[in-house]
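User: Just a sanity check before I run the rest of the batch. Below are the structure tokens for the first item. I only need the designed sequence back.
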């Protein structure tokens, strides 16, 4: 879902803002860990994994609220801006390509496990994923246009609040599910 939304978001920027060489190098470096994460995920209790994910989201959201870094996302965008001197639009577009590459790699274990499973399913709930993917795709293009008009500090705070709200929802839903079992 995130990879698909990232692909849509980077499409209008692909020619003029992506550093393709860096995207290929960084994306390739992320393929083995993405595949490993997909493999390990099959062996973990998904509900407990969601609680860990919610905790990581809270930590990231709080860090973004407290940060004075104006350069963008969680880790990759600031690294591209600070360490490699990329302009922020190039860093954002390049990071979107890296997300696409690593998202595809992370799906490999699901599709290979599904091919080996009876019935050949992927183990992914497309009835849940589909609406979220559609919403992410529909939001990514206007959000990209809006992002160019707003100061980075407002975008960062808004994104931090969104991350915290999603974390609260994920944690609440997961705790309710765990309590019911």
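Assistant: Here's the designed sequence for the first item:
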């Amino acid at each position: 879902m995130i990879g698909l939304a990232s692909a849509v978001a980077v499409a209008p920027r692909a020619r003029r803002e992506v550093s393709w060489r860096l995207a290929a190098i960084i994306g390739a470096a992320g393929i083995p860990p993405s595949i490993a994460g997909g493999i390990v995920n099959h062996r973990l209790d998904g509900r407990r994994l969601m609680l860990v994910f919610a905790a990581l989201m809270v930590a990231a959201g709080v860090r973004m609220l407290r940060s004075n870094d104006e350069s963008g996302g969680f880790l990759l965008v600031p690294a591209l801006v600070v360490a490699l001197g990329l302009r922020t639009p190039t860093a954002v577009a390049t990071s979107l390509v890296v997300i696409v590459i690593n998202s595809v790699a992370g799906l490999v274990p699901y599709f290979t496990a599904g091919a080996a499973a009876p019935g050949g399913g992927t183990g992914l709930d497309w009835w849940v994923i589909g609406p979220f993917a559609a919403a992410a795709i529909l939001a990514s293009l206007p959000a990209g246009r809006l992002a160019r008009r707003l100061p980075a500090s407002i975008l960062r705070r808004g994104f931090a609040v969104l991350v915290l709200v999603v974390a609260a929802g994920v944690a609440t839903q997961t705790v309710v599910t765990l309590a019911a079992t």
